[in-house]
Design a protein that fits this description.
Elements (H helix, E strand, L loop, with lengths): L2 H10 L14 H6 L9 E8 L2 E8 L9 E5 L3 H15 L3 E6 L3 H8 L7 E5 L1 H10 L2 E2 L4 H6 L12 E13 L23 E2 L6 H14 L1 H14 L8 H9 L5 E5 H8 L6 H7 L1 E4 L10 E9 L5 H11 L2 H11 L2 E2 L8 H5 L10 H6 L1 H10 L9
Parallel strand pairs: 3-4, 3-5, 8-9
Antiparallel strand pairs: 1-2, 2-4, 5-11, 6-11, 7-9, 7-10, 7-11, 7-12
Helix pairs in contact: 3-12, 3-13, 7-8, 7-16, 9-11, 10-11
The chain binds fe (iii) ion.
Length: 387
């Protein structure tokens, strides 16, 4: 892509902010101007912005059509580019995507009523609910979205929609935990697992959601008793990411790692870092609460931004992402679960077995997130087992 095309492109669309119009001779611009793959419709480039790296993907050809849409995504390019390409092919609608690692809400807010974004793709009920509470989302009524996405996986007023689900599972030692021994969230607090559990920070969104689900299901007092029990069972202070917990099982630090299911998929298939394949071999995925409420689930999802100038096209994108083709791609690429009934899971995900999902409304769980965060502080969860 040449700087000339870049600038022409930005003038031709409503998707323009100061941050996207570097001087043509600036080093940033020359980096942006470096083409990646000539035959692809999209070009990807990196630009440094306050608060983290941001990737910008632009449709490379011609002036913007009226139906072009602008997408903010905190989902990674490798995951959504194939689906966006398929959408453009099917609909003729180009998608200009800004990849944002941090500060999604701030960037939407910074745009005010003239926010350049039409739609947003992100992960975790917390981020979706944060956008809802901030009042930056536009309600959508769509028969296709209602039909494709179960009611408990979307906002009741059409403010956000779950597009995939992910399970926060136990990855247990194949050697040291017998099948059937660790089966539930209640087991996380059972005295026989003292000193055997590893988990990341209690303040991480994945754990806040898990604890919020416990509050929603069992009430404040029971959730507090449970969390104190979990804390007492920790092998070490909460630390690291989800994969680091599986590594700790591999190293014998603990016997049970709490992690999102797709990280096992990422470790199993990791050719760049084969050590992670060893971590994966040390663990067995256990879906929890199969004799009770079912496995706690979280979502990735999408929403329309208030003030969109292309709502019809943006809704079409969401509908496409909830359809069979995109749902299958999601399932294959990131080892997640499609939300649409009847779409096959990937062979690897299927190899972990069928399971019962908890169908507690994500909206309901998300409402208990502030209480979950307070509870983590109250019990001193991140101080570790000996505090
Ligand atoms: Fe993750």
């Amino acid at each position: 892509m040449t700087p000339r095309i870049w600038n022409a492109r930005l003038r031709a669309t409503p998707f323009r902010t100061a941050r996207q119009t570097p001087a043509a001779d600036s080093p940033r611009c020359s980096r942006l101007a470096t083409p990646t793959r000539n035959k692809t419709r999209f070009r990807t480039a990196t630009m440094a912005v306050a608060g983290g790296a941001m990737l910008l993907t632009l449709a490379a050809t011609g002036p913007a059509a009226a139906a072009d849409i602008n997408l903010y995504s905190s989902r990674q390019p490798f995951l959504i580019k194939p689906m966006l390409s398929a959408f453009t092919k099917a609909s003729g609608i180009n998608v200009n995507t800004v990849y944002i690692k941090k500060g999604l809400l701030e960037k939407i807010r910074a745009g005010g009523v003239n926010s350049p974004a039409d739609a947003v793709l992100t992960t975790d009920m917390g981020r979706l609910d944060e956008l809802r509470q901030a009042g930056v989302l536009d309600a959508v009524q769509s028969k296709i979205l209602s039909a494709n996405i179960p009611a408990h996986l979307r906002n009741p007023n059409g403010l956000w929609f779950g597009l995939t689900t992910r399970a926060r599972v136990a990855l247990v030692s194949t050697d040291r935990v017998k099948p059937g021994d660790f089966t539930s969230l209640a087991d996380m607090a059972a005295p026989r697992f003292k000193g055997r559990i590893c988990i990341r920070s209690g303040k991480h969104a994945y754990n806040i959601a898990l604890i919020a689900a416990q509050i929603a299901r069992h009430g404040d007092a029971a959730a507090e008793k449970w969390l104190r029990g979990v804390k007492a069972n920790l092998a070490r202070k909460p630390q690291g990411n989800d994969r680091a917990q599986a590594k700790a099982v591999y190293e014998g630090v603990c016997d049970i790692a709490m992690a999102n299911n797709y990280y096992l998929g990422k470790m199993v298939t990791n050719k760049k870092k084969p050590a992670q394949q060893d971590w994966a071999k040390a663990v067995r995925l256990v879906y929890l609460d199969q004799n009770g409420a079912g496995q706690h689930m979280n979502v990735s999802g999408a929403a329309i931004i208030k003030g969109t100038r292309n709502k019809a096209a943006a809704v079409k994108l969401l509908e496409f992402l909830s359809g069979d083709a995109a749902q299958k791609m999601y399932a294959e690429i990131n080892h997640e679960y499609p939300v649409k009934a009847g779409v096959a899971r990937s062979p690897l995900v299927r190899s972990w077995g069928a399971f019962k999902m908890d169908t507690l409304s994500i909206e309901t769980i998300a409402k208990h997130r502030p209480a979950a965060s307070k509870l983590v502080d109250k019990v001193g969860f991140n101080d570790g087992p000996n505090s």
